[in-house]
Design a protein that fits this description.
CATH class: Alpha Beta
Shape: globular
Largest sheet: 8 strands, mixed
Number of helices: 14
Number of strands: 11
Distance between the termini: 27 Å
Strand content: 5-15%
Radius of gyration: 21 Å
CATH architecture: 3-Layer(aba) Sandwich
Structural class: alpha/beta
Length: 376
């Protein structure tokens, strides 16, 4: 059901309530949309949004320094595979937030993803997801996950469903990258393995279509007037312990195509939409011995959409000097990811601060909502 002003007034009970919460009234009246995209595996934020002006970058990344990276401002540049994203930035519709992480600051994929999805503090969290609790806090709202199984982030009692797109199942590209070196050394197996990789679609870019197709599917549902206001899409393959440069060139291009597909699919609804791209943690600042990076802490979150106050880089950049790194090895997180979530959910979807602090993100009153993420 479309959330009209009439329905919202009935749910709120009085016009005077709306006058006390003008942002709530505005968000409800505009029928805003939110899509959360989770990149599972730990995106290397330094590889996507590059601190090009940091004097310590070259010594940490060496030959990885990208001469063709696209400038964002005097301090940061964007990976060259993200052409459409750069165009959104130029239009003021894309905003990276640097040096972020969930409150869990260790290096376990499973615990970090659970922490991000349940919205709890560092010591644990609820068995339900914060997006589901967000749906519950909004009148006449539905959630949708483009996945075969309901993810933790949308699990709970509120109105949420899954839709499984008819995407061909493929082998994890990271696994193929690791196996390739082993099979290449065997004269009998090298050619059959190469043929299998080609059939898998890796050489022709077949895997690149998975995230764009999922995001296009989300747009088809969310762009309709009575569609779900909250959506979720996930993507794997971001755990780049080896051969990171070619892997992330392909994966970031896939994300870029996904943003384009969602943008095009939302059509007129794009102007009242926010896309939040997040990951469970970052990577080590220095390159490891296999041309990759290992599990770290601080990374980057990305906000896109017509409702975003973009065209700039947000967040508190800590620097890459040895004394500035977390435990001397990875980017220090200066912003709790829940601050970004709160800043978007509160201002864009109109969820009251009291509900954010107590229910959507339990016991988080000490975590402020990040201001200025959205257009006024």
């Amino acid at each position: 059901m479309t959330l009209t002003r009439r329905h919202f007034l009935a749910a709120a009970g009085a016009v005077t309530t709306l006058s006390l919460w003008p942002r709530v009234a505005q968000a409800a009246d505009r029928d805003t949309r939110l899509l959360v995209v989770l990149l599972r595996g730990g995106l290397d934020g330094l590889h996507a949004v590059i601190p090009a002006a940091d004097p310590h970058l070259a010594s940490l990344r060496g030959a990885w320094t990208m001469k063709d990276a696209r400038r964002l401002d005097a301090d940061f540049a964007l990976h060259p595979a993200m052409d459409f994203t750069h165009a959104l930035y130029a239009r003021g519709e894309w905003l990276p937030v640097v040096a972020v992480a969930p409150p869990y600051r260790q290096r376990s994929h499973f615990e970090a993803q659970d922490n991000l999805e349940n919205g709890g503090g560092a010591g644990g969290g609820a068995s339900t997801g914060w997006l589901n609790r967000c749906v519950a806090a909004m009148p006449a709202c539905r959630g949708l996950s483009v996945s075969t199984v309901m993810p933790l982030i949308l699990r709970g009692d509120a109105d949420a469903s899954t839709w499984s797109p008819p995407l061909q199942e493929e082998v994890n590209p990271i696994l193929l990258q690791r196996l390739q070196a082993l099979y290449a050394a065997d004269p009998r197996l090298a050619q059959p393995f190469a043929q299998a990789v080609e059939a898998q679609g890796m050489s022709s870019g077949g895997n690149v279509a998975r995230l764009p197709q999922a995001m296009a599917a989300a747009a088809r549902f969310m762009a309709t007037p009575d569609g779900p206001r909250i959506g979720f899409v996930e993507n794997t393959g971001w755990d780049t312990h080896a051969q990171q440069v070619p892997v992330l060139a392909r994966k970031l291009a896939e994300l870029d195509q996904g943003l384009r597909a969602f943008h095009d699919g939302m059509a007129g609804a794009w102007s009242r939409t926010v896309v939040m791209v997040v990951t469970e943690f970052g990577r080590t600042a220095a390159v490891n011995g296999t041309g990759g990076t290992d599990h770290g802490t601080g990374t980057v979150a990305m906000l896109g959409g017509g409702a975003v106050a973009g065209g700039r880089v947000a967040g508190d950049w800590p620097g890459l000097a040895p004394s500035q790194l977390n435990e001397g090895r990875d980017v220090r997180a200066t912003t709790d990811l829940r601050s970004v979530f709160k800043g978007v959910v509160g201002d864009h979807l109109g969820v009251a601060r009291s509900a954010l602090d107590a229910r959507v993100f339990p016991d988080s009153a000490e975590v402020p909502a990040m201001a200025g993420l959205l257009r006024g």
